[in-house]
Specification:
Helices cover about 50% and strands about 15% of the residues. The protein is an alpha/beta fold. The protein has one domain (about 5-245): Aldolase class I (TIM Barrel). The chain starts with 6 loop residues before the first strand and ends with a helix. The structure holds 1-deoxy-D-xylulose-5-phosphate and the ligand NCC(=O)COP(=O)(O)O. The ligand NCC(=O)COP(=O)(O)O binds near residues 155, 215 and 218. Catalyzes the complicated ring closure reaction between the two acyclic compounds 1-deoxy-D-xylulose-5-phosphate (DXP) and 3-amino-2-oxopropyl phosphate (1-amino-acetone-3-phosphate or AAP) to form pyridoxine 5'-phosphate (PNP) and inorganic phosphate.
Length: about 240
């Protein structure tokens, strides 16, 4: 039976984006993580990109040292990132696609096209005691591949849903809802995220099979005006309202 509650993971990448813009030591994404957890976040997500454009190795190490059980590290499937994850041992890793030139993640991981490396990565991370999610598009071909990979969790990419409007958005929502059902039936724990805001989160939160949402950019942006605890609380309310409708 799908869960009635839904966890909020707060992504603090864009706190680090502001810091890196000036090469200062502030604002600190580690401090932001602590504040977000105190404000009701269930976990903290950080994407350690290969180009280190925002989050740095030290941020991940510090967050893991302080809150290991609640840290979700997003990373590319590369030997260097796998070695780093196995050394730092966050509780969760989400394997994501990465392109140097993209402004943000543009789609899901093509698990079907790289099943062997993804399967090996899942095995290696599981051996290190890390629970793995695959960040994928709502696409049955990817679901089949994900089943063969051995990953226990999936995070559905909601970027296209967030970027479209009207009939196209309704279509994307239907696709995500149907995919979440199939993924849950196949035994995966189902998460979702990317591009979600207080204005668009409710229909995604209403999908019973989704039990975790990872949200960052809109929360960090909103925190400029109301502060991080209030921005996390606003998102929590929007999710709970959506879930209960
Ligand atoms: C994988 C994903 O959906 C995002 O969480 C990702 O972290 C976005 O990367 P940026 O934070 O660099 O936009
Ligand atoms: N995996 C999605 C995530 O961590 C946050 O994405 P966004 O809200 O910053 O677009």
């Amino acid at each position: 039976m799908p869960s009635t509650s839904i966890r909020l993971g707060v992504n603090v990448d864009h706190v680090a984006t502001i810091r890196q813009a000036r090469g200062t030591v502030y604002p600190d994404p580690v401090e932001a993580g602590c504040v977000a957890l105190a404000a009701g976040a269930a976990s903290i997500t950080v994407h350690l990109r290969e180009d280190r454009r925002h989050i740095q190795d030290r941020d991940v190490a510090e967050l893991v040292r302080m809150h290991r059980a609640r840290i979700n590290l997003e990373m590319a499937v590369t030997p260097a990132m796998l070695a780093l994850a196995c050394r730092l041992k966050p509780a969760f890793v989400c394997l994501v696609p990465e392109k140097r030139e993209e402004l943000t993640t543009e789609g899901g991981l093509d698990v079907a096209a790289q099943l062997d490396p993804v399967r090996l990565a899942c095995q290696r991370l599981a051996k290190a005691g890390i629970a793995v999610a695959l960040f994928i598009d709502a696409d049955v071909r990817q679901l089949k591949a994900a089943r063969a990979s051995g990953a226990p969790h999936l995070e559905i990419h909601t970027g296209r849903y967030a970027d479209t409007r009207g009939a196209a958005q309704a279509d994307e929502l239907r696709r995500i809802a149907a995919f979440a059902k199939s993924a849950h039936k196949a035994g995966f724990e189902v998460h979702a995220g990317h591009g979600l805001t207080t204005a668009n989160v409710a229909p995604i939160a209403r999908i019973r099979e989704v039990i975790e949402l990872n949200i960052g950019h809109s929360i960090v942006a909103r925190s400029l005006f109301v502060g991080l605890p209030a921005a996390v609380a606003e998102m929590r309310r929007a999710i709970d309202d959506g879930r209960s409708r």
